[in-house]
Amino acid sequence: MNRRLWMITAVGAVFFLAVWASVAAGVTKAADEGGLQLFDSWQWLDPFTFLGNGKTIGIISVMLVIGLWFFRRDVYGMVLVVVAVGGGYGINEWIKHVVGRERPPHAEIGGFSFPSGHAMIGTIYLLLLAYFLAQTRTKRGERAAIYGVFAALALLTGLSRLSLQVHYPSDVLGGFVLGGAYLAACLALYRMWIHRGGRL
Hints:
The protein is 74% helix and 0% strand. By secondary structure, the protein is mainly alpha-helical. α3 runs antiparallel to α4 (75-99), α4 (75-99) runs antiparallel to α5 and α5 (117-134) packs antiparallel against α6 (140-163). The two termini are 19 Å apart. The model has no long low-confidence stretch (mean pLDDT 93).
């Protein structure tokens, strides 16, 4: 399992760097403009942006931390949530300032565009929530269904940024990829940590 997680991390990191390089070189310009036009009429996606808002993520993350303590006494899991969500947010903001990409012309919010925070942090906390919920089920089909539902919610959260015209498609793609890679690394370290009984 850990080998698979590290593989996801490595492949995701390389893919993200490729997207970043493509954005910097202007390779994605035509696809980005076409994607914005395509999603402009998909207003049904707009409400899903709520799942990626800071308050929503904060409240659900705090509830998850509390639940891990009261129901499992999982201190390592609590640390995982803080590091994955908080660290992911910090990495996202740092890369945004390094890249310095402006948002689409008609975006009515400030800040930089690449990678999408909603796509990245939404992927991290929703799949992390799925990870802990899946551990409560014994049947493989039930666990797969949990991951499927939360992955779909993460996808819709990211796509809502396109229907709202506040991100380019490459921003959202970069957010998904980086969020998945970072979460995989966090889970691999968490599993390694609990396997060793918390010893570094």
